[in-house]
Amino acid sequence: MEWSLPDPSIPVRQGDILINRDTQKGKILAIHIVITADCDISKNKFGSHLAGLRIIFHDDYIRTIWADKKLQKSLTDESKRVRDQVAKWHTALIKNESEITTEAATSWIKRSSSEEICSQLAIPTKEQKKFIRSIDKYRKILENQEESQSLSALFKYANFLSTHKEKSFNDALSEALTQAQNESLPDDVFFLPELPETGSKGVIVMLREIIGIPYSQVFCKATDSSNTSDHIRIARLNPDFKYAISQAFGSLYSRIGLSASYEARCKEALSKISSYEWSTRC
């Protein structure tokens, strides 16, 4: 196992898993892992609060954070694609490169029918059917997103896939979940298959979400706790996993951010490499 159950007499240390529990219903309200270094804890150099990282259930992560990232990227890509279609015909109309923005194109699509846009852009009759179909689909995507504001990000993403790929909502939801299963997790999270008292559900350690945990409200025995705001230790990660999370956390925050201009020049330089040039040199 990735964790063990320390004796209540053993003091809190890095890698300890703490929970907040509803004192009336017994439901777990929050989970955190202590990230403060052992040497700081043992020498009482952490002040009044321990540093902790938030832990959420894996299915909650998929339903909210993962799904929202997928949804926002999909909407951005679709908006850009439609903008490029509008700009293509706008360029042909004005005989100059169109400077219409994604926001302007989207606003135009929202307030005008596809037929009106075709007329205003002077799109040839034989090209209108394909253009109208694309614009109508995009408009439907926007309408569905507005109508599903109260739904989870996962259901919003499934709604997007359903409209975009013209399939049933259940098939789209199944596709979204398959994507989530097959994709690697990003560098700013750490996965644990299970923890005690979580019903054998996988959990995600959110390496970017640091919180202060009042040391006076940390207890090693559940019987010593009487408030929902208390943090009760339920387990301690074994050394390999404790240090792995600590290393991942440190690596994330020690990265050096390079300028956008540098990255742009790198892409430009790489784009100039041709297979022909390499084949002649080798």
Question: What are the key terms here?
Answer:
8-stranded mixed β-sheet; alpha+beta; 282 residues
Task: Walk me through what this model shows.
The protein contains 10 helices and 8 strands. The protein is of the alpha+beta class and 282 residues long. Strands 1, 2, 3, 4, 5, 6, 7 and 8 form an 8-stranded mixed beta sheet that branches. Strand 2 (16-21) and strand 3 (28-34) form a beta hairpin. Helix 2 (58-94) crosses helix 3 and helix 2 (58-94) crosses helix 6 (153-164). The chain is elongated and about 80 Å long.
Write the layout of secondary structure elements.
Layout lengths: L2 E2 L11 E6 L6 E7 L3 H5 L6 E9 H37 L7 H10 L2 H8 L3 H23 L5 H12 L4 H14 L6 E4 L10 E12 L3 E2 L11 E7 L1 H16 L5 H12 L3 H7 L1
Residue ranges: pLDDT <50 for 5 or more in a row?
none
Spatial separation of the terminal alpha carbons: 51 Å
Q: How large, in whole angstroms, is the Cα Rg?
A: 26 Å
* Dominant shape: elongated
In total, the number of strands is 8
Structural class: alpha+beta
Largest sheet: 8 strands, mixed
Q: How would you name the oligomeric state of the polypeptide chains in this document? A: single chain
What share of residues is helical?
A: 40-55%
Order of helices and strands: EEEHEHHHHHHEEEEHHH
Q: Strand content of the residues, in percent?
A: 15-25%
Summarize the model shown.
The protein is α+β, with helices and mostly antiparallel strands. The chain has helices spanning 38-42, 58-94, 102-111, 114-121, 125-147, 153-164, 169-182, 239-254, 260-271, 275-281, and strands at residues 3-4, 16-21, 28-34, 49-57, 189-192, 203-214, 218-219, 231-237. Strands 1, 2, 3, 4, 5, 6, 7 and 8 form an eight-stranded mixed sheet that branches.
